[in-house]
Amino acid sequence: MRFIFCVLFTSFCFAAIAQDDDMPDYRSKRDMLSKIPEKDVQADVSTFAMAGLDLGITRLPLRSMSISDYGDNFLKFDSGNIKISITSTTFYPARHKLQYIEKYLTRIDNKAYYGSYGKLPKSVIQSVVVVVDHDTVPIPPIAYTDLYEPRFTYKEGGTAKSYNSVYFSPNNHAIYIYLLCNDGMGGYEVTWVIQDKKYLRRIVDFNILKN
Q: Quick check: helix, strand or coil at residue 112?
């Protein structure tokens, strides 16, 4: 995973060249990995998230779960007792309130958003469904409705691959659902944290080169 991040770093660098420095940025930083209060969660997530490279925490890699199915607008994980699906849908601008500052889109429905920030997005995360031991873990819409332009897969040599995965804490009490939306400086990474069959929080980092 760390090798992949080194490759991604280069792509982020090239995208950063084209980023406008004067674009206003109203995205919240309170959900960033470096700011969350749960230090055990922070240490775990630092083993796989790009934002964790700056924290200097050395930990062994976490156990992970591979993707079981995917498409342009969905991603699924299935280990038998744990089933996770993430879906996206088309973003229809006419159904939303769009707020611009000069040429930059800064808020959608009165909220700053993630993914292609400053531009009109084409897709948005529609749902995050988590089932553990046949029990559905409710994920509040506020945890994903401001996340746009999700990237579930990418092509390499004609083969579809993914940066995304599900990880487990060493004590198996926490599940980390990780999604990397590589869109240059407009990109972001999000980790939804499930702890003891309950939604705990999300972690969102963006403009990773500037952190």
A: coil
Evaluate whether residue 211 is within a structural domain. Answer: no
The tally of domains found in the chain comes to: 1
- Its domain, for residue 46, covers 2-206
Question: Tokens representing 146?
Answer: 């401001």
Provide CB contacts within 8 A for 193, sequence distance 6+. 41, 45, 174, 175, 176, 177, 199, 200, 201, 202, 203
Q: Rounded distance, CA 47 to CA 67, Å?
A: 19
DSSP state of 31: T
Global confidence as pTM: 0.88
Predicted confidence (pLDDT) per residue in 44-86, tens digit: 999 999 999 877 666 789 999 989 999 889 999 999 999 999 9
